UniProtKB/TrEMBL annotation:
InterPro entries: DUF938 (IPR010342), SAM-dependent_MTases_sf (IPR029063)
Organism this protein belongs to: Roseomonas nitratireducens
Gene3D superfamilies found in the cross-reference section: Vaccinia Virus protein VP39 (3.40.50.150)
Coiled-coil boundaries: none
Stated name of the protein: DUF938 domain-containing protein
Length: 207
C-alpha cells in the first residue's frame, strides 16, 4: 500500500466473500438498503454491491482509517449502489441511520465486547431490519472445531471481553428484541451465518 493508497486489504475477505455472497443472495430482499456494521476494509461491501445491483449498501465502521479504506475502494469501483461510509459504533445507540431493510455484520461480535453484540441486535431491531451475522460460534457451550477453540483462546488472551460467542446466547438476545427463531447456515472454515427476521417488520428503507 502506497502513502496515498488508503485501501486496506484483508486476506480473509478475499477467501470468504464468495461463499458469503452465495448465502446472502436468497436471504436478502431483491431491493432496499443493507446496512453493513463494522465494514472493516470495505472489500465485502464493494463485492456485494457489485453482485447485487438491486440493493443499496451503506457501509459503516467506528474506525476512521477503515472508513477511508471503504471510500477508497468505493471510489475505484464507481458503483452507484454503494454509499459513503459512515461512523457507527454498534454499542452506541441511537445509530446514525434512519432506516434499513437488512443489517449485515461479518466477523465482528467475537472481536468486540458483548455490549457491541447487544447494541447490534438492539439497533437492528429498532430499524425493523433482518439481521445477518457471520463468523465462528459455539453451539451447546462447545466449540465446533479445534481451530475455533484455539482462536477463542487467542482472542481472550488479547482481551478478556472478546471471544467466540455462544449461538444460544445470541439467539436469546435476539428473541428478547422481537426477532423470530434464527436460520442457521453452515459456512466454510467452521463458520456460521445466522439470519434473524422480525415477523412484525415493515421495510422502511428509502428506495
Amino acid at each position: 500500500m502506497t502513502e496515498t493508497d488508503l485501501r486496506r486489504r484483508a486476506p480473509a475477505a478475499a477467501r470468504n466473500r464468495d461463499p458469503i455472497l452465495a448465502a446472502l443472495r436468497p436471504r436478502l430482499p431483491a431491493a432496499g438498503l443493507v446496512l453493513e456494521v463494522a465494514s472493516g476494509s470495505g472489500e465485502h461491501a464493494i463485492h456485494f454491491a457489485a453482485a447485487l445491483p438491486g440493493l443499496a449498501f451503506q457501509p459503516s465502521d467506528a474506525d476512521p482509517e477503515a472508513r477511508a479504506s471503504i471510500d477508497a475502494w468505493a471510489a475505484e469501483a464507481a458503483l452507484p449502489n454503494i454509499r459513503p461510509a459512515i461512523a457507527l459504533d454498534a454499542a452506541t445507540l441511537p445509530w446514525p441511520v434512519a432506516a434499513a431493510d437488512a443489517v449485515l455484520c461479518i466477523n465482528m461480535i467475537h472481536i468486540a465486547p458483548w455490549a457491541a453484540c447487544e447494541g447490534l441486535v438492539r439497533g437492528a431491531a429498532g430499524l425493523g431490519a433482518t439481521l445477518v451475522l457471520y463468523g465462528p460460534f459455539r453451539r451447546g457451550g462447545a466449540h465446533t472445531a479445534p481451530s475455533n477453540e484455539a482462536f477463542d483462546a487467542d482472542l481472550r488472551a488479547r482481551d478478556p471481553s472478546w471471544g467466540v460467542r455462544d449461538l444460544e446466547a445470541v439467539a436469546a438476545l435476539a428473541a428478547g428484541q422481537g426477532f423470530a427463531a434464527q436460520e442457521i447456515v453452515a459456512m466454510p472454515a467452521n463458520n456460521l451465518m445466522l439470519v434473524f427476521r422480525r415477523l412484525d417488520a415493515t421495510p422502511r428503507a428509502a428506495r
